[in-house]
Design brief:
The strands form three sheets. The chain has a seven-stranded parallel sheet with strand order 3-2-1-4-6-7-10, sandwiched between helices. A three-stranded antiparallel sheet has the order 5-11-12. A two-stranded parallel sheet has the order 8-9. The protein is an alpha/beta fold. The protein has one domain: Rossmann fold (3-Layer(aba) Sandwich). Helix 1 runs parallel beside helix 2, helix 1 packs across helix 7 and helix 3 packs parallel to helix 4. Bound molecules: nicotinamide-adenine-dinucleotide. Nicotinamide-adenine-dinucleotide (NAD) binds next to helix 1.
């Protein structure tokens, strides 16, 4: 495809959570179509590794370390990105994590954890980015990562599902409030994706093959990143407030039944495994 159709060349994009997984894939794809990329992550080594990969692809880049769950740090991350890659035209945020438990057994800590991890970062970084764009009279585009878990009921997954559904609504409201400023805001709802945090274990691959997910396979970070590129690009110039499932047909199959019930337990972020309660 003629990548000039995307109109992304030379744009400055901040990818929050860009140090790994879907964020890393998105940062590298953005670099391949000519974007300057600021890679923000709570883990320094991750941010630096992906920023170096962007630089290897020939694009200006910077690594920014910060915890964007804190409003002040989210603002700093946005300001640093603007300074270090020469402006800010677009924002991608990918942060999110799930607790797995039934509603009856769910603890206040699990509920709060999922709402903090899945909602706060986008609210504060998008708010800071929009304030900056509007004050400079610039148009812009933003994409966050929600989940199919925010579009359907989510047994053993209620706090994550509710937070991800909140993100879908937040995106709609931002899209409406900021449309007069030519700022588009969209979300992607991935299905089952292979990432370093949730790898393609044999058990997960088999569960996917036996599920009602029509594609019968896990998706990749690149497949989500390509959808982010589309939503950020000029190809989506009339798309705002939308949530795009990237799910191998999961949401379509959901009309037939529940394709995939996660086991109870807490997701172990380091091992990518489900720890039973
Ligand atoms: N992998 C899947 O199957 C799947 C399915 C549906 C939705 N999702 C969603 O996709 C998104 C990305 O998933 P992933 O597996 O690529 O994530 P990941 O955990 O692999 O990567 C997220 C990155 O964000 C960084 N980060 C975490 N908290 C941060 C903070 N407070 N401030 C700054 N950086 C922080 C982490 O260090 C990490 O590098 C998540 O929102 C997740 O809920 C994933």
């Amino acid at each position: 495809m003629d990548s000039s159709l995307l109109q992304l060349e030379g744009k400055s994009v901040l990818v929050v959570g860009g140090g790994q997984g879907i964020g890393e894939s998105t940062a590298k794809l953005l670099a391949r179509v000519g974007c300057r990329v600021a890679v923000a992550d709570a883990v320094q080594e991750r941010a630096e590794r992906v920023a170096a990969a962007v630089a290897n692809l020939g694009q200006p880049s910077t690594a920014i370390v910060g915890n964007v769950l804190e409003e002040g740090q989210a603002r700093d991350v946005v300001e640093r990105a603007e300074r270090e890659i020469g402006g800010l035209d677009a924002l991608v945020t990918t942060i999110g994590q799930a607790s797995f438990n039934s509603i009856l057994d769910m603890t206040p800590e699990q509920w709060d954890h999922d709402h903090r991890k899945n909602l706060r970062h986008f609210f504060f970084t998008a708010q800071a980015a929009a304030r900056s764009l509007i004050s400079r009279g610039k148009s812009g585009s933003m994409v966050c990562i929600t989940s199919v878990g925010g579009m359907q009921s989510a047994p053993n997954h209620a706090s994550y599902g509710a937070a991800k559904a909140g993100l879908i609504n937040l995106v709609r409201t931002m899209a409406v409030e900021w449309a007069p400023h030519n700022i588009r805001v969209n979300a992607i709802a991935p299905g089952s994706i292979t990432t370093p945090r949730i790898p393609a274990t044999p058990e997960r691959v088999e569960r996917t093959q036996q599920s009602l997910i029509p594609a019968k396979r896990l998706g990749t970070g690149d497949e989500v990143g390509k959808a982010a590129l589309f939503l950020l690009s000029d190809l989506a110039s009339y798309v705002t407030g939308h949530t795009l499932p990237v799910d191998g047909g999961w949401m379509a199959a959901y009309l037939l039944g529940i394709p995939h019930v996660p086991p109870t337990g807490t997701l172990d972020a380091t091992a990518g495994a489900i720890r039973p309660q």
